[in-house]
Amino acid sequence: MKNITDLNLVRQYLLGRLDEQADLEDNVSDGILFNDEMTDIVDSIEDEIIEEYLEGSLSSVDREAVDKYFLQPPERQEKLRFAKLLKHHFETKPSRYSGTKHENFVRPPVPWLSHFRTYGQFAALVLLIFSTLIYVNGVRRSQGRLESELVQERERSSNLVKEAELLQPSMVPLTLVADRSRGAEIPIPQVKIKSSTRRIIVEIALQGGPSGPYDVRLETKEGKGPLWSARLSPLISSSGDARLLFDLPSRGIESDVYSLVVSSPTGALRHYDFQAKLAK
Amino acid sequence: MVQRGARRALTAEGFGKFLRWLSENDELAVREYQSIRMKLVRYFIHKGCSDPDDLFDKTVDVVVGKIDTCGECPSPLAYCYGVAKNIWRQDLRERKSAPPAALEEHMALPVYPDPQIHEQELKCLEHCMDQLVPGDRDIVARYHQGQGHEKIETRRRLADGLGGVNALRIRMCRIRKDLRVCVAACVDQWAN
Prior knowledge:
The complex is a heterodimer. Chain A is an alpha+beta fold. In chain B, helix 3 crosses helix 4.
């Protein structure tokens, strides 16, 4: 798979400008998907777009593309939110990290040659350079080894971060056994939704009934909705127990009581209430 | 909550069939599934889709329906990607024909309603900044230093020191990612 070297092309791709150019769009998509080395590059261009968006330095055409295309995925909205948080942090606490090292770094270049204008001084410098040559070579070798170790360490650290991201639990289980007709007999089940949660894996134990498809919809406890709906076939075990197993998207669910309304093929309705709690 | 309409959920049977197609070995199948999922969700994010997870599920739905007829398949990723491209094109057509109001609805950026959480995030960010290795902390601090021309100059010097503008961008991108992961974990820990 060939490398994509034109970073502006990637930028145009991320802003949705290649969507109407099938061949070009395919090339860039393929290049990004099948070449892991492109991951960092694409991520950094995404960050650059977000930064320019925050700074207000995008052209009006680019800004419109960001609003209407680039920022549609929740993941990018989250990236933007974090960039705002970071910006806010450094705007309100700039002095927290200001140390002497900064002064060294931003110091304007000193016209050092002006200090050695005479031949005598220059000769002394040459002598000094030769006398320390062996020492410098030794330091360089040592520095090269350290740099190589640093690169390996950084790669290991980067892999660990990626693994950590994969390990973040993105699904939470929710088992519903008793429907609303059981009243206050059984406490209402709770599901805790963290920022990393994407799906709620729901299991509803059916109390007998036909094996045909069931209509399931999500409502607020007051009956507003449906917020989500699906037609599902139950899973039936060898002992005849029937249950519905499905996943709900957690996006948009707030700390509140919701109800899953299950409609059987015979038309019987059952309400399974649960309480969602957004983890602070 | 945005109503997303009726959606066909992948059954346990379908999911099992997909995993078996990926590998006979459970562990390898799950690993392959996670890898394909990560790549295709990223693909849908790159394509500006508002619900990348849902489009991935649709992709798997279609693939499961075709497993029995697709014959020899040298690369499950390539096969799923081919299906994903069609799903994206269909989604793009639907987005274009959607009324403008739908776009405005999506434009609302997520904001935590609870100022306590925002406050905690800032505290966590301070903690995570302290956890960075000194070199990275120094880079991110300098990167955000100053305003206007001073900021441009500082970043130019940073880039010179790191081997160019692209090297600086990639380094900053990795540091931001580290910070995001650290802050999310810290906020979760605080919440529990």
